[in-house]
Specification:
The structure is a homodimer of 217-residue chains. The first copy, chain A, contains eight helices and eight strands. Chain A is an alpha/beta fold and 217 residues long. Chain A has one domain: Rossmann fold (3-Layer(aba) Sandwich), CATH 3.40.50. The first copy, chain A, has a seven-stranded parallel sheet, sandwiched between helices. In chain A, α7 links the parallel β7 and β8. In chain A, α1 runs parallel beside α4. The longest helix of chain A is centred in the N-terminal third of the chain and has 13 residues. Chains A and B meet through β1, α3, β4, α4 and α5 of A and β1, α3, β4, α4 and α5 of B. β4 of chain A pairs parallel with β1 of chain B.
């Protein structure tokens, strides 16, 4: 039978951009790099950030802003690595905005911080629409989610500086085509870096670490 | 170091409930059952619905309302099974609401429909907050996402009538504990049915099919 398409327009973008620009200027004035890490739930944001902290904690002063819809164990996991974690609880809200990030930044000593990770709320839909004032966007897509996700959730991938394809350690068990995937991303976002990784085993993480080093220096 | 918690309250719930109740009454007056299928992206909503249609297409008259943030191939996949698929494109919006569903229902011949599936937008956060007028909520969590997700995204699981644990065919490769998981769900939602399934291989799907049969009759 036929497909009927109804378009339901909805303005979900607030007057958020000005605040985001303020955040970026504030960070620049203190020489702080902020990276916004986005993905669906369960793709590996916490694992990625934890591994990255372990790599860099003796080299850079790191803080993490954790977005959560409810009180979570992520912040405790992160602080086991001896960095400051600020938990932003949205009380059910599906995204962070620049104003929330500003509140978190105001609690940090930015002169003693080199690198801030935002662990965004776990979904591929609304998070990408809100500029938070980060300098870079890192998007994680994990192998079990499927290689068609950039078509279904394009905004996230169009705005990514880095696309991390996580859980490559289980690639033998899923249909995700790692050969054609870079072409899909390049088609919508030619400048995006694409790094297949396993935050669990450490496979491929060196390229991600090098990218952070380059971006910070 | 310490964890600092900032609470950012946000009212994301609109005056949606009245419309949802109207939808439910409309469906009841035509003896139609509507099931709202929710999950993160890539958990297997389309596969579940496709398999279920294949099971029941000679027994029930089925329609599918597809929520998408951008034009998608899901509706085409569904219509290959000879049922009517209505695509609701939210233009980036992260959730469906009762008013959008009403527009879709108005395009259907409800006297010639027994069962409607809503394939909700792929995320675990904001979709559950909006009553769409469905009679039942089915939530899919897939093995690769991890068994901690009910703690992180509780609303979705508290409101589920059925929790489908999908992709059990790859359970050997992930840490998901299928023995303790039912206890986690029962703790927050004692009446929820919990069905481990593989929409890919068909494993465990008979209990889901039986539940639909019972609910319809």
């Amino acid at each position: 039978m036929a497909v009927r398409t109804l378009t339901v327009k909805e303005n979900i973008l607030g007057a958020n951009n000005e605040k985001a620009e303020e955040n970026r200027k504030l960070l620049d004035s203190h020489h702080v790099l902020m990276i916004n890490v986005m993905s669906s739930s369960g793709s590996g944001k916490t694992s990625l950030i934890t591994r990255t902290i372990q790599q860099f904690r003796d080299k850079y002063r790191i803080a993490v802003i954790e977005g959560n819809v409810s009180p979570s164990i992520d912040a405790e996991k992160i602080t086991q690595n001896n960095v400051l974690a600020i938990q932003l609880n949205t009380s059910g809200g599906c995204h962070l905005d620049a104003q929330m990030i500003r509140k978190a930044l105001d609690t940090l000593d930015l002169d003693r911080t080199d690198l801030i990770f935002i662990e965004n709320i776990g979904n591929l839909v609304c998070t990408a629409d809100f500029d938070l004032g980060a300098h870079k966007n890192a998007v994680i897509l994990s192998i079990p989610e499927g290689d068609d996700k950039p078509y279904k959730y394009p905004v996230m991938f169009v705005e990514a500086d880095v696309v991390l394809v996580n859980k490559v350690d289980v690639r033998a068990h899923f249909d995700f085509n790692l050969d054609t995937f870079p072409g899909i991303i390049s088609g919508m976002n030619p400048s995006a870096r694409i790094y297949p990784i396993s935050a669990k085993t450490g496979e491929g993480m060196d390229r991600w670490f090098s990218w952070i080093d380059e971006t910070l220096n």
